Amino acid sequence: MSTKTDVPVSREARPPRGPQPGSSLGHWAGFGSLRDEMERLFDAFEPRQWFDKVPGRPPMMTSEFVLSPALDLAETDSGYLITAELPGLDADQVAVSIGNGSLTISGEKSAEEKTAEGTYHLRERRWGSFQRSIRLPQDVDRDKVEAEFANGVLKVTLPKSAEALASTRKIDVKSA
Prior knowledge:
Blueprint: H1 29-44, H2 47-50, E1 71-75, E2 79-85, E3 94-99, E4 102-109, E5 128-135, E6 146-150, E7 153-159, H3 162-166
Antiparallel strand pairs: 1-2, 2-7, 3-4, 4-5, 6-7
């Protein structure tokens, strides 16, 4: 095996990072460490490192994540609509309750039994119990709240109270 190459290689000394004695960058000293930290963070999310099995270094994708459903909250003239994504769940695995001025969506996603033989290299799907609470507006009629679940999507309808609807009136704007 030959070590000769046609590509020119040069090794130049790189200037040390950070402000040098006598330089005018003394007040920017924190940016060097910020840059190092940002590079370390981006390196941690490179896909090639997800599969590394280096002794002493924890695997990148095994940290515990808190399960929390993604929500949308929309307001209409007659009330509010909360939509929550709960993929892989059935209606009997989800609970919706109202108390202390909040609406709470909770449930539990069970782990699937292992069906494939072999070693997992990446597991991003999570399971376990979850809970998400949302502070309710004052004008919600708590006795008429309804929830519907279909295709992994929970829709909670929060109608406005009769008093809130009656207190709303349109004001005509006149041109001057």
